[in-house]
Write a structure and sequence with these properties.
11 strands; single chain; 3 domains; alpha/beta; 5-stranded mixed β-sheet; 6-stranded mixed β-sheet; 11 helices; D-Maltodextrin-Binding Protein, domain 2
Amino acid sequence: MMASDLIFARVIKLLSLILMVLCAGLASAQQWPTKPIKWIVPFPPGGAMDVIARSLADVSAKTLGQPVIVINKPGAGGNIGAELVARAEADGYTIMITSIGMATNKYLYPNLSYDPVKDFAPVSLIAVVPNVLVTNATQPNVTRVTEVIANAKAQPGKLTYASAGLGTSVHLAGEVFTSLAKINMQHVPYKGSGPAVSDLIGGQVNYMFDSITSAKPHILSGKLRPLGVTTLARSKALPSVPTIAESGLPGYDVTPWFAVFVPANTPKLVIGKLNSVLVASMNTQTIKDTFESIGAEPIGSSPQELATYLSQEIVRWGNVISSSDIKAD
């Protein structure tokens, strides 16, 4: 056999192997899922993100015909769970729900071990859970957003607002507020929303831009007074509470969102199936009732819509974090 014939034979063999691998991958994607799916929640149990994931996992599993197992991997502002998913096999059997940290952590953590765009493929926006500016219900002379601003201007640097930690939406909502209002308030970070709310109720701090999920029970019990929601539209969970934008701070908008991602290079066929199942699940009465109970408002989107939204959020929050010189611990 001539050398040229040998080379040609080897090329044909290589192309055949490549074709076999591609066909096997296509068949695997078409049959997906054939085993349980791991759903990573990069924060502790009990919060809005965890409730959303568990409710969607239960409903989606019935459609998919395979268990969807929720696994909490908290730590480092969501980075531990995100890195795990970024390094997972891109076969559709590891998915992740995440939030605004997908847009902010690259600025908060200089040595981030993953790229929020290159290492993940978007699946769907899931929901918005507005934050709400609240104060201790016993605090006098503060019933409107304009009074918060007036009091802060009269006492620069003396009034405080709590957060669930540096770089959380609860913190960033305060940063945007003080920047737009041109006021100076002290940020007091806590390790989680629970202790922050406790100190707010106890009067150790003045304000908090807390998630409606954790704030609403205290609002209903009369311990906290709502002053304004952070989103551009009023929240269905607190319809009588005006937005901050309509209450004296035009242009104010902080929209805490939740979305699902998978490892980069996950087959598009799998992503399409997962997207369809999640969007359909959000239209079930079970999910609507669960979301309503925690103040979540369902969205649903295409993968491309999520990709576009994430890129916009990365630019926006990069500017906020840089101008405020925020650094995570």
